[in-house]
Amino acid sequence: VDLVVEVAHPCVAQEHGEDILGHADFMLGSPTALADPVTERRLREAATRGGHTLYVPRGALWGCEDISRMDQQGTLAALKVTMTKSPQSFRAQGWLRERVAAAIASGTRTVLYEGPLRPLCPLVPNNVNTMAAAAVAAPGLGFDGVTACLVADPSVPDWHVVEVEVTSTGDKGRCLSVTSTRRNPAGLGAVTGSATLGSFWSSLQGGCCPPQC
């Protein structure tokens, strides 16, 4: 086997990632696993020991290569990713489960979370892999520096909307800022949008984000 692709749950990487990297390259379709520093360290060390590569697909992250390039050049000052989905699309755990239930009951747009990405990942590990890909693409900010905003909105029952806000370092109070909005068709209650498959296939053909983490 040359490459193992995980598209199930971060527990696969947590429980089996080291063994996989001892024998093959590993594409981590659930990069929320890397929000756990111990898991990230173990996987990186296993990749080095085995002489294999740990890949992260770009998923629904628009502008991945530009974000990575800015981070490498030291010009990336801030990165915020807002994901808006139907309340039924979230597979929440812990305290966030109650907030999702309340959003479903109210039938109104609800900001479920806004803040650093790292603590959000274990609460909705299936839903915020795009945010995790952003943290991997921008290691200068990482899981603690990337800002995550998760929104439940019943008015978009069959769409997943991802907004990426990039801000560069500035000079004399002026700086580059770019905002992109990606609307991905999705089935009612689906965790992943329909266009994500094509993005994963592109990454599998050699366009991972970043090429090596």
Attribute tags:
single chain; 213 residues; alpha/beta; Rossmann fold; Dihydrodipicolinate Reductase, domain 2; 2 domains; five-stranded mixed beta sheet; 8 strands; 34% helix; disordered C terminus
Structural class computed from helices and strand pairing: alpha/beta
Question: The CATH topology of the largest domain is what?
Answer: Dihydrodipicolinate Reductase, domain 2
Taking the alpha carbons of the first and last residues, their distance comes to 20 Å
**Proportion of residues in extended strands:** 25-35%
Mean pLDDT: 91
CATH class of the largest domain: Alpha Beta
Give the strand order, joined by hyphens, for the main sheet: 5-6-4-7-8
Radius of gyration: 17 Å
- Count the DSSP helices: 7
Q: Summarize the main sheet.
A: 5 strands, mixed
Helical percentage: 25-40%
* Sequence of secondary-structure elements: EHEHEHEHEHHEEEH
Low-confidence segments, given as residue ranges, are 207-213
Name of the CATH homologous superfamily of the largest domain: Dihydrodipicolinate Reductase, domain 2
Domain module count: 2
